[in-house]
Specification:
The complex is a heterodimer of chains A (748) and B (197). Chain A is built from 18 helices and 29 strands. With 748 residues, chain A is an alpha+beta fold. Classes of the chains: A alpha+beta (748), B alpha+beta (197). The structure holds FE2/S2 (inorganic) cluster (2 copies).
Chain lengths: 748, 197
Amino acid sequence: MNAIIGTPHPRLDGRAKVTGAARYALDNSRAGLQHAALVLSPIALGRVASINDAAVAGLPGVRLVMTHRNMPALRPDAAMQDGGHAHASFRPLEGDEIRYHGQPVAVVVADTREQAEHAAALLPVRYEARPGAVAHLPEDAPSEEEAGSLDVGDADAEWEASAVRVTADYEEPAQHHNPIELYGCIAEWDEQGGLEVHVPSQWAGGMRAGIATVFGLPEEKTRVISPYIGGAFGGKATVLATTLLTCAAAKLTGRPVMLQVSRQQAFPTTSFRPAARQHIRLGATAEGKLRALIYTSENQTCRFDDVSFPGGEILARLYDIPGMKMREGLVRTDVNAPGFMRAPAETPAVFAFESAIDELAVALKMDPVELRRRNEPARDPVKGLPWSSRSLLRCYERGAELFGWSGRDHAPRSMTKDGDLIGWGCATAVYPTFISTSSATLRLTSEGRAEVRCAAADIGTGTYTILAQIAADRLGLTPDKVTVRLGDSTLDPANVAGGSTTALASGNAVSKVAEQAREALFKALTEAEEGPFKGMSPASLSLSEGTVRAGNVTQSLAEAVSSLPRGKVEATDQWAHPEMPAKQSKMLWRAGSPQGGPDMESFTALAFGAQFVEVRINPRTRTIRVPRMVGVYAGGTILNPRTAHSQLMGGMVWGLSNALLEASEVDRNHAAFANADMAEYHIAVNADIGALDVEMLEERDDKIGPLGAKGLGEIGITGTAPALANAVFHATGIRVRKLPIRIEDILG
Amino acid sequence: MRDPSEAETDMSEADHLGTVAPRAAPPGQDNAWPVAMLTLRVNGQTHRLALDTRTTLLDMLRDHLGLTGAKTGCNQGACGACTVLADGKRINACLTLAVAAQGQDIITIEGLAKGDALHPMQQAFVDHDAFQCGYCTPGQIMSAIACIHEGHAGSAEEIREFMSGNLCRCGAYPNIVKAVQDVAGQGDMRFPGKGGV
Ligand code: FES
Ligand code: FES
């Protein structure tokens, strides 16, 4: 069998994407389409006192002004973290209450977008504001409510006994995903009361369930279609209120409705990464053996749901620390619900912790790579379980070599080039290997092709391509002979494309059904009344290069399948890890989101990497440039090095953006996100990215599932900000503990 | 700070959310916006259509001509997802009114391939995995073609600078630079300038 898994096969959806043929949600304009525009609240707290819809109802083209007075009654749905499918349990337009700035208060539908936006802008709304709204993470944040806690050994005693100690506080701002694709959707009801929704989705099945629940529809009458997603990063995992509003508006007008949420309006109405703060106490022996980690954190959330992303559980897996105590708190603020954003728990927590580790290395006057070497845990420090695989030190070794780390003078402010300050920093990258489950169907056709059906998503990750490779590998075909269908709720259930889980879960499901289809084919051919393989043992048959073979007897796959009575062979099944309890894995069929890890019954699984960053700082202007970054990762089996490379590279670009640029600034007077557009919310542009080296080490992992592939979508971001902040310290001697790092932070 | 509850007629607080401040229609205007009869040449084909004069070139392409390759990312000139060529120059279709695009040769991503044969830049984007989600890609490719034609693809550094008007949230930048360098190195890129494809 030719090796197909592990080869850098070009993306199968490449041609569609470079020709403009790929249809994203809002590319599905249709006859009779009406356009919706949102009216958002300029107050953060209070109520809508009156809306004079008559003032715009008569404007040209206007078909509907939907407010809390005429919005159809919706049934409740919990937020995803609470077992539902919604972004937030609180929904706008269900009453007159305003709970965050920019909350929708009306939807105007008209024949054209221009008419709808114009009328929305003219809609007179009177508000009664209440004072006291807070949208930022207050400095004296009360955080009694617990979002997570963890204890290992006696942290206080270890801290007391530590010879060298670091105490530091870190802070990260709120951030918005800002995928380049605008949020929005097209909703159309048919005459039988069925609903079709084109919406960018990381979870077609989950969104279908959420929408069906809310509108009281049977699931089979609800369809969510999302074959292409213009960037998701966690923000398109749950049912947003804007989706429900569009469906409701289409129900009222009886016509298909498109809502294109403007870039600005997306800031308050969609998901975001909440602000967070960490207080770290880290103790070690004089030789650099870690003894104590005392970690408390404050995590911003909203008033109506308990959404939060405590990262302590992951930090506890990085090093061998005998005493650990983690206390993570929730801080309620007057914002829309926050949500998953690329490595939601890890990104802020790893920044804080890996900065603290660097501070400790400085206090110890030790090479920070050496410090990590001295604290490598043989087993999971929390559960005592063996690692499924762990290659952190190999990543450091290779990364240091690629980067030229041995040339580093560890003293701060010691390196310069052409008059600029040079800083080198490193940090660990980590992401838990969450083990999910998925189903799939594979059909062999009389054309000698394979068709894979799975409701998973390709959010740019390469899912189309790797699933085709896996099927092709199992069936002795080339990947172009495999058609993969994804992103449609009518397909076989898959879990949310989140937590870097799709490659392993859907990959194993496809592998399983491909093998089953192959065996079914062999069985049918050998049991057939006639044909070249009649009477042979199925075990003597094989499939390669599109041909069924048994010794010298051969038949093309197309002929073989055509010869069968049904003219096709089909297999459907679910893959779940043997250590996932059956009760949990069955949830997949009820649009649940079952997921295990990082600790399973008999092992703990995480992916690790080592990141190295060089910064170059102008001594007078203090501008920070990043001429090069190196990331070395181990992620088990690399299914496709090309798409995996892009995932890791994209993660590192996100990391730079996170470290130097991104913050959703809060206007405290109005409790509003103030820089709500692409001109003022800065993300990395091409010129911000210098040389970027990604390497993936070989790593074998036979515990996490047959393919042994750890998810790589999120790990790339995690180590970048701390490596960069550590480099800034190395260049300037100034420790910046708050992101993003800006010129004013390093004036010295 | 004004009392936000007085926000009935002037919601300037809401401006940064992108809602235009609601003001009464100018006197004498009944809000029936003028419709213009437009003639546009797109990918070498002439289209005649009656459109609300507020319609942008981008919305015209996407919603009225069904050319959804050009993408909407901000409607503000900040992301480049809507980049098309107008008489050989890269422009943001979201900042161009359809009425103002008359008389120019507009080339969109759909106008690049010759049948099954991809334009070299399209092929280079596939070869170098210069995208992930693919949403910024049509704009990147149009911009990249113009970048070379402008003479701004002399070095990786120059490409980075002159491709920085096209945001890629997936972070495909290093591979985009490689794709542009690849095509620039081939020497004879097919350029769809004035006169159409
Ligand atoms: S949509 Fe035109 S620049 Fe963003
Ligand atoms: S490929 Fe996703 S935004 Fe560029």
